[in-house]
């Protein structure tokens, strides 16, 4: 088996982590990577890789990903995209990147795929596909009715990946991700940014603004979110490649990756346990009702039964081990 893997969005946060995880994956021996992004991606050391700076809204640049010296990939991880706030603020760009370029990549994958050994097309979606009135717990039967450009774009691309799989054009796998904490780097403009920010900045000795509640005593701090750690998410990205096609539900390749529910208060309590009251004191509050309304509209509880039955894994122990891991990453200078 050739084990050539194409990752789009490879210069992004999860794309970079995925490349390293694939190199370490015993089930993908001697992996060779084709790494593409509009920003020049970096390859992990010691692996045969091609890095390509490409704008994937351009069909010719997509074609070029299948014409490298590494040949046709057996797996495509489609991770490139315009994130939530970006696609809400720039609707046209969101359509172009989150739908049109995904469709073009899917079609090229179909054209290049051997009929007797379909290329796996692994697509990262989001819980932003859900909106409107929702049940207490989301199950595989819950209908997705997005109320934003980002979720709409993801759902549209999901439908294409499902249809291409049903027709036997590609072997699609769609992962709806929880919100991933703790995201390293600088604070972003995303509505969900505070979910990472209230852990990340205090662990670096910096102040962080929490837009939920006005103080540590606010009842708003009971706001729950559906979360997963980066480590578990990346493990699940690799698992997605190894799930036998016949194990998926017949009518859909969508899988809501396992996660857990934590409130803003749960996060702050974990921060206090790991880094003390002085770390929590660095969190300042200024309630932002708009931000709170958006985050409150996201489903905070999912049934993990189906993804666990496929072999996907879930974080154990809630927020505390995640905060501890991030503290180690800060100490190691990689956060
Ligand atoms: N991080 C999360 O919490 C989360 C949650 C749900 C879903 N996702 C999805 O997972 C995927 C990866 O997320 P991430 O956090 O690594 O995002 P990221 O923003 O760090 O990476 C996305 C990458 O896509 C690239 N890109 C954008 N437009 C492009 C274009 N026209 N051509 C080529 N590359 C382009 C960007 O340069 C960037 O490097 C995305 O599809 C995202 O929607 C992430």
TrEMBL record:
Carries keyword Signal? Answer: yes
Highest taxon of the source?
Eukaryota
Q: Which UniProt keywords apply?
A: Carbohydrate metabolism, NADP, Signal
Q: Name one Pfam family in it.
A: Epimerase
Residues of the signal peptide: 1-19
Residues of the NAD-dependent epimerase/dehydratase domain: 5-206
In the UniProt record, does the keyword Signal occur?
yes
Show the PANTHER family listed in the entry: ADP-L-GLYCERO-D-MANNO-HEPTOSE-6-EPIMERASE, NUCLEOSIDE-DIPHOSPHATE-SUGAR EPIMERASE
Q: What is this protein called?
A: NAD-dependent epimerase/dehydratase domain-containing protein
Species annotation? Sphagnurus paluster
**Organism lineage string:** Eukaryota, Fungi, Dikarya, Basidiomycota, Agaricomycotina
